[in-house]
Design goal:
By secondary structure, this protein is of the alpha/beta class. The chain is about 40% helix and about 10% strand. The strands form two sheets. An eight-stranded parallel β-sheet has the order 9-8-7-6-5-4-3-10, covered by helices on one side. A two-stranded antiparallel ribbon has the order 1-2. The structure holds NADP nicotinamide-adenine-dinucleotide phosphate (NAP). The site of NADP nicotinamide-adenine-dinucleotide phosphate has 29 residues, from strand 10 and helix 10.
């Protein structure tokens, strides 16, 4: 496996990140252990979770798996803070109070003494960035956290935070997570160039548009049973899964056939090949999906893929609504 530089950190990571949003929810603990062991055996060395995933079961499963296989020290372990962890007024967001409390809780749930990459899951627009940064900086100085990153920040918010870190002499963010796939190319406009300019690693989420780019959804037929978008009455899912996503797949099918790979692998390899992308986060629900996803590492992207895609979703455009499906209308985003 060819490892890639994780921004300016000096750490090298695998070209795919193992995302664990399904673990402990739609994937059982046993299936999740199996996927983690398989990924690490194949050379993946970075795992992403979050305090809120599957009611914290994802963090617990990841911690248990690393204890069982004894590979904790080989892994860059990433988790996140921001989402609501209770009903109280201080159980959410990027306040000093919540960050420090949740860092300790995540360490305990994962049974580890440090988090390699601690990320803000989302910005907190009512909390000054210097408060959040100071709390993160303290966690680095106490050894509980090694690096810090953002997720779902607007480009200006990332740059503001880099400026604040410089002004205040605090550790700066080293990475960002934003949605990026063939159906949503908005980060090409400003966010990816921003990451390149400031040396931030970009580890994009939903590289397969949540499964929409795998070829299993077809026009005129019911969404497959058990799939993420099976419920066609859910308005949030409707925003993400449209017929235009299927148009992309249709354009890719002949190219994938000629390359002897699957549409899933082509869509994933495309994200991996994009300038400014460090390594996409895959989010398998089954071992078979993970195995297919990992086949993307060997797929080369030719100009004909870009030509076919540009005809359906031009650079910087989108046909699936990731932010609209996830955020309140006036929330900050790029
Ligand atoms: N920072 C954030 O706000 C944020 C947001 C979302 C995700 N993430 C992170 O990013 C990771 C990846 O996101 P994602 O899960 O949305 O990624 P994704 O790769 O776009 O979608 C993954 C889903 O697609 C389907 N799938 C995957 N491989 C498949 C295959 N080979 N064949 C058929 N279906 C397949 C599965 O869903 P079904 O089988 O159920 O249909 C799977 O759960 C997450 O695990 C999480 O770590 C971060």
């Amino acid at each position: 496996m060819n490892y890639v530089e994780f921004g300016r950190t000096g750490v090298n990571i695998s070209p795919l990140v193992l995302g664990t949003m399904m673990f402990g929810g739609r994937a059982s603990a046993e299936d999740s252990y199996e996927m983690i062991d398989y990924a690490l055996d194949q050379g993946i060395n970075i795992i992403d979770t979050a305090n809120v995933y599957a009611g914290s079961k994802s963090e617990m499963i990841v911690g248990d798996a690393l204890k069982r296989n004894g590979k904790r020290n080989e892994v860059i372990l990433a988790t996140k803070v921001n989402g609501a962890m209770g009903d109280g007024p201080n159980d959410v967001g990027n306040s000093r109070h919540h960050i420090i409390e949740q860092c300790d809780a995540s360490l305990k749930r994962m049974q580890v003494d440090h988090i390699d990459l601690y990320q803000f899951h989302r910005p907190s627009k009512h909390i000054a960035i210097d408060e959040s940064l100071r709390a993160m900086d303290d966690l680095i100085r106490t050894g509980k956290v090694r690096y810090i990153g953002t997720s779902n920040f607007g480009s200006w918010q990332v740059v503001e935070s880099l400026w604040a870190s410089k002004e205040l002499g605090l550790n700066r963010f080293v990475s960002d997570q934003s949605p990026y796939n063939m159906a949503d190319r908005r980060i090409e406009r400003e966010h990816l160039p921003m990451c390149q300019t400031y040396g931030l690693a970009q580890i994009p989420w939903s590289p397969l548009a949540g499964g929409g780019l795998t070829g299993k959804y077809a026009k005129g037929s019911k969404h497959p049973e058990g799939s993420r978008y099976a419920d066609e009455t859910d308005p949030k899912k409707q925003l993400r899964m449209s017929n235009t996503v299927v148009d992309i797949v249709d354009a890719l099918v002949p190219i994938a056939e000629a390359k002897n790979c699957t549409v899933t692998q082509l869509a994933l390899a495309w994200v991996m090949s994009r300038p400014g992308v460090t390594a996409p986060l895959v989010g398998p629900r089954t071992l078979g999906q993970l195995q297919e996803n990992m086949g993307a590492i060997d797929v080369e992207i030719d100009p004909e893929v870009d030509e076919a895609l540009d005809g359906v979703v031009p650079p910087g455009e989108h046909v699936a609504e990731y932010y609209e499906a996830s955020f309140a209308p006036n929330d900050h985003r790029w």
